[in-house]
Design a protein that fits this description.
The structure is a single chain. With 739 residues, the protein is an alpha/beta fold. Among the domains are: 4-164, P-loop containing nucleotide triphosphate hydrolases (Rossmann fold, 3-Layer(aba) Sandwich), CATH 3.40.50.300; 180-251, no CATH class; 302-489, no CATH class. It is 64% helix and 7% strand. The chain contains 34 helices and nine strands. The strands form two sheets. The protein has a seven-stranded mixed sheet with strand order 2-3-4-1-5-6-8, with helices on both faces. Helix 21 (450-460) packs across helix 31 (666-672), helix 25 runs antiparallel to helix 27 (588-608) and helix 29 (629-637) runs antiparallel to helix 30 (643-655). The protein is elongated and about 110 Å long.
Length: 739
């Protein structure tokens, strides 16, 4: 008897699939990518009745016809991995559309359990579903559940264990009728496919014939490689029927097959499966809300209010935990300073690790609160309304309504990531619209930029943090849309394509779901800080430390110290130069002079380092935007990852600090530094928001675009544009600031 069951969760987008996955697996999840593609793969484990249930969350998809990477991934996983069964999450309030995917699973022969989700929503809409009758007609177990509250999940797991442990359970393909022409052709193709054993080890013969009729690129390619002669013969037969159908019915086989599948579903639903207790045309609660929320005039105002409220919530409530973390890392730095002997190791730990990585981790509370707010907007269904409203605006700038979600995923509300945003452009069918979206999603304020923005806004505009964050969001969207219009009017000219979008019903997010979504994203940020950012911080520390000053200059600073200490008793000199003992009374002025010498020496050492020389070399250009050599070092590090800007500034201002208080926060150091002021901060914000994407995003753009040409174009164009914008802000701003 099997002690484990492997199941796959599958369903339409917005059917509650992810909610069920989180309810089943909780924190016992692993997130990676499917082999060969950058689509996210989630796996998790739960135990029920002493059986280990291994759960794989497939990408949300409407069908198994491989028009998108998500559909292809779902299909390949099923036929290659052959899980014990598929739990198909179906929206009970929208059965006809959701059961279309169920039919395709059954045509493929996959053992299916139907999880009839959102049964409470169906009831509120006056829809009653006869579960037993649906199970009988679909010839598959049906379990009613409410994933967000956990209702019915125990019964679902009972059914999973019962079906999954049945060793006699085999894949039994469902055969549907698709009309005389297609049925006759399939009758001819199936024997030929079976005799030639064309892909029969992987797919049912009738299903392969259907895919050839639907002109499925992947199946056609596999068939040609397996047996080109037989495959060519089948394609010719398919072409003949396709021409006949176009002549007689003005339709392609794909459309006719889809029509017959929906006809099969309707026939099932009309056999006592559904009963409508209320008027079908009544206005549901979601529709009532949408009449206001998606209103042409009120909708954008509500959206702006929601975003401003999110930023106010984030900055107001994250202040105290952020201060705790800041104090904690200050304590670590002081402890290391007292405990470790002077030398490279001490410098690396304090300046490279604590001031570097600690500066990034200090923003975890802001990241966490921001992600929590975004999770509320996602889980409630509001973000889909944002996409719907913005479609009208996007069309003006040559983009598609489907471009909105990649923008939001990339950080359109702040806190996303450009990598999944770039991957999300796969949903766009038009190559020109897809490329324009792909090139502009890096302009969004991703989670990596958020700590830098919070640092500079907190240092120079602390009394209006939410207002400046909201303004930064508006600017990022505006610049992205203008850039898209420029691309669509020049290098990416092409016609617009229509946009159709499903608006899911509004739901109250569950607290458990919000916590899981918030922790998943926050943990990714923490993990990146503890691995990638740590490695880059140590590398940059080394570049900012070596090769160091020439010996003659070091001796010069030592002579200055000796001159300051000349004439003092040996005991007083020892107390002044030992940080672990209290300074003698009356030596404050001498101590300040020693600190000034130490800081000047540290700054000169930083100037002589490899990173310092690079920063100084760039200063002849960067000065037009107000950036000094230390800022240049951080901005160069930002090409690898934007979080590195904070850690590098922390290291640079730690190694070359002019502040006698070692434990002073980076925010305070910048605010007090003569090279910084509010105008420089605005110029730096503009540059950081729009210059070259991080290295991982650049690689992703190259992969999605199919070549490195567009990835390199993105780096060059964005950096030049960002610098020109920053220089304009600085030059104009300083005239106004000084005036």
């Amino acid at each position: 008897m099997k002690n484990s069951v492997h199941i796959a969760l599958a369903g339409n987008p917005n059917s509650g699939k992810t909610t069920l996955f989180n309810a089943l697996t909780g924190a016992r999840q692993h997130v990676g990518n499917y082999p060969g593609v950058t689509v996210e793969k989630k796996t998790g484990i739960c135990r029920h009745s002493n059986v280990e249930v291994i759960v794989t969350d497939l990408p949300g998809t409407y069908s198994l016809t491989a028009y998108s990477v998500e559909e292809l991934v779902a299909r390949n996983f099923l036929v290659n991995e052959k899980p014990d069964l598929v739990v198909n999450i179906v929206d009970a309030s929208n059965l006809e559309r959701n059961l279309y995917l169920t039919c395709q699973f059954m045509e493929l022969g996959v053992p299916v359990i139907i999880a009839l989700n959102m049964i409470d929503v169906a009831h509120s809409r006056g829809i009653e579903v006869n579960v037993d009758r649906l199970s009988e007609l679909m010839r598959a177990p049906v379990v009613p559940i409410v994933a967000r509250s956990g209702k019915g999940i125990e019964q679902l797991l009972d059914e999973v264990v019962r079906v999954g442990r049945d060793r006699k359970k085999i894949w039994q393909p469902l055969s549907l009728s698709y009309g005389e022409d297609i049925d006759q052709l399939l009758g001819e193709m199936v024997p030929l496919i079976n005799e030639g054993k064309l892909l029969t080890d992987t797919y049912p013969a009738r299903w392969t014939g259907l895919k050839i009729l639907e002109n499925d690129d992947q199946i056609l390619d596999m068939a040609m490689r397996a047996d080109s002669t037989l495959a060519q013969s089948l394609v010719q037969k398919s072409d003949q029927v396709t021409r006949h159908l176009q002549t007689t019915m003005e339709a392609y086989p794909e459309a006719i097959i889809a029509d017959h599948r929906y006809g099969y579903i309707k026939s099932i639903l009309r056999q006592g499966v559904m009963a409508q207790r209320y008027n079908v045309d009544r206005l549901y609660t979601s529709d009532r809300i949408d009449k206001i929320v998606t209103n042409r005039f009120l909708g954008p105002l509500i959206m702006a209010g929601v975003l401003f409220g999110l930023y106010s919530f984030t900055f107001h409530y994250s202040t105290i935990p952020a201060a705790w973390l800041e104090a904690f890392f200050g304590f670590l730095a002081d402890t290391a300073d007292r405990s470790l002997p002077d030398g490279p190791v001490k410098s690396m730990i304090i300046s490279g690790v604590i001031d570097g990585v600690g500066g990034v981790l200090g923003f975890v509370p802001i990241i966490m609160f921001m992600f929590f707010g975004i999770a509320m907007l996602e889980d409630s269904g509001y973000l889909a309304r944002v996409a719907f409203m913005l479609d009208r605006i996007f069309r003006i700038f040559g983009l598609h309504g489907s471009s909105v979600m990649p923008f939001i995923v990339s950080g359109g509300i702040a806190g996303g990531c450009a990598v999944p945003g770039v991957m999300a452009t796969r949903t766009l069918r038009s190559p020109k619209e897809r490329m324009a979206t792909l090139l502009t999603v890096p302009y969004m304020n991703c989670g990596a930029k958020l700590p830098v923005m919070a640092l500079l806004i907190g240092a120079f505009f602390s009394s209006h943090q939410a207002r400046y964050m909201f303004l930064a969001t508006v600017v990022s969207w505006s610049v992205a849309l203008l850039a898209a219009k420029f691309f669509r009017s020049t290098v990416l000219r092409g016609p617009a394509t229509p946009f159709v979008m499903e608006l899911p019903p509004y739901r109250f997010p569950t607290f458990r779901g919000l916590l899981i979504h918030t922790w998943e994203r926050t943990w990714q940020y923490i993990k990146k800080a503890g691995t990638v950012i740590l490695g880059i911080s140590i590398l940059l520390w080394a570049m900012m430390t070596y090769p160091g000053m020439p010996g003659e200059e070091s001796l010069g600073f030592e002579r200055q110290r000796q001159e300051v200490l000349a004439g003092l008793p040996a005991e007083t000199v020892a107390e002044l130069t030992d940080d672990k003992v209290e300074r003698p009374a009356g030596t404050e002025e001498i101590y300040r002079r020693l600190i000034a010498i130490d800081n000047e020496e540290a700054e000169q050492a930083l100037r002589h380092s490899l990173a310092g020389r690079i920063g100084i070399a760039l200063e002849s250009i960067s000065r037009y935007a107000g950036f000094d050599w230390r800022t240049n070092i951080a901005l160069v590090g930002g090409f690898a990852a934007k979080e590195v800007i904070v850690s590098t500034l922390g290291t640079a201002y730690s190694l070359g600090s002019v502040d006698p208080e070692a434990s002073t926060s980076l925010r305070e150091r910048l605010a007090r530094d003569g090279a910084w002021n509010p105008v420089v901060a605005l110029a730096a914000l503009a540059f950081i928001m729009f210059y070259a994407p991080c290295f991982v995003t650049v690689v992703c753009i190259a992969r999605e675009a199919g070549n490195w040409k567009w990835a390199l174009f993105s780096m060059a164009f964005n950096t030049v544009f960002a610098f020109l914008l920053a220089a304009l802000i600085y030059q104009v701003g300083m005239v106004l600031y000084m005036g």
